[in-house]
TrEMBL record:
Gene Ontology terms describing biological process: protein deubiquitination; ubiquitin-dependent protein catabolic process
Protein name: Ubiquitin carboxyl-terminal hydrolase
Keyword match Electron transport: no
Residues of the site described as Important for enzyme activity: D181
Family, similarity comment: Belongs to the peptidase C12 family.
Record GO terms (molecular function): cysteine-type deubiquitinase activity
Source species taxonomy: Eukaryota, Fungi, Fungi incertae sedis, Mucoromycota, Mortierellomycotina
Organism: Mortierella alpina (Oleaginous fungus)
SUPFAM superfamilies the UniProt entry points to: Cysteine proteinases
Length: 348
């Protein structure tokens, strides 16, 4: 795998992924984090275009025998599949695997032209085309962490110090459920799934994959590419209002109290979604901002006022106490068989 082009690590965050999608010109969809893959959760998000799954990369899975894996389709012109040809690109490739296989998503001019241009390419050349796309690379790298001390794209020791994580996608294509992993030779076909039945089919597949890891491994993340939630809520409000008007016309102005309640609930959902988007946009701006100059000026001012030494000593004392407390909690948790390791998850 090549490092040419310097692609940064991408944080596993729905706000980042939604911003990336919008940055490459796609409209009408967003990314939602999923904490459960039960039917009720997935039904509430419909229509779901695909799932993005993040897991700890272990190379070849020793627990997965050839017979336990879905078959690879080496030649299927109906499925857009690109091999990952560059380090750190798996997050964007997982997103593209869903976007470029959906018949209903508005891809925008740039991505539509890209899909048309590479449609007849083999998987390897599709991967190279993604790597060489100025637009896709620029939008991807716009979410690079601001770190003036270590350049994560060039530090040769960065990945030796941390576990590696990898993104793949699950999405339906022509009535079959596909697993799209750029590190494989082709898409894996998990079998027929007419309509929305793929959502029921994909849950056990992901659960089985998670079960292959040791019992203490909890570092997984699952996100869904779904329709713009505000538009979904607004369309439901419009439909309920039409029903309410018809009902009140036939039965009187006091009819349809349940419809009024549903409309009020949906309007609250719209407000919450707007607030969430504002928060995500702010967080994305903060990710790009370099706070070192501000921190330097604050520390300089404290030093000039003679307060820095005292604050440093106090900080060290607090850090030592917190570290000791954390060790005690971890020891107690491990003794109870529930040790949990926190991790910020980034792609491979």
């Amino acid at each position: 795998m090549s490092d040419t082009g310097n692609w940064c690590l991408i944080e596993s965050d729905p706000g980042v992924f939604t911003g990336l999608i919008k940055g490459i010109g796609v409209s009408g969809v967003q990314v939602e984090e999923i904490y459960s893959i039960d039917k009720e959760t997935l039904d509430d998000l419909k229509p779901v275009h695909g799932l993005i799954f993040l897991f700890k990369w272990q190379g070849r899975d020793p627990a997965a025998t050839p017979g336990s894996l879905a078959p690879i389709e080496y030649e299927n012109g109906d499925v857009f599949f690109a091999q990952q040809m560059i380090t750190n690109a798996c997050a964007t490739q997982a997103i593209l695997s869903i976007l470029l296989n959906s018949p209903t998503i508005d891809l925008g001019e740039e991505l539509t032209n890209f899909k048309s241009f590479v449609s007849d390419f083999p998987a390897e050349l599709k991967g190279h085309a993604i790597s060489n796309s100025d637009l896709i690379r620029a939008v991807h790298n716009s979410f690079s962490r601001s770190d003036p001390f270590i350049n994560e794209m060039n530090d040769p020791n960065a990945k030796e110090k941390e576990d590696l994580f990898h993104f793949i996608a699950y999405t339906p294509v022509n009535g079959n459920l596909y697993e799209l992993d750029g590190l494989q030779e082709g898409p894996r076909n998990h079998g027929p799934c007419p309509g929305d039945s793929w959502l029921a089919k994909v849950g056990p597949i992901i659960q089985e994959r998670m079960a292959r890891y040791a019992g203490g491994e909890i570092r997984f993340n699952l996100m869904a590419v779904v329709d713009d939630r505000i538009k979904v809520y607004e369309e439901k409000v419009k439909a309920y209002q039409t029903q309410l008007e018809t009902l009140q016309k036939n039965e009187g102005p006091d009819a349809g109290s349940w419809l009024k309640g549903e409309i009020d609930h949906l309007r609250q959902d719209i407000i919450k979604e707007e607030e969430k988007r504002e928060k995500q946009q702010r967080e994305n701006k903060l990710r790009r901002h370099n706070f070192v100059p501000l921190i330097y000026e604050i520390l300089k001012g404290l030093a000039q006022e003679g307060k820095l030494s005292e604050l440093v000593a106090e900080g060290r004392s607090r850090a030592k106490a917190e570290l000791e407390s954390a060790k005690q909690r971890k020891a107690a948790s491990a003794a109870a068989g529930h040790a949990i390791e926190d991790v910020d998850m980034y792609d491979d």
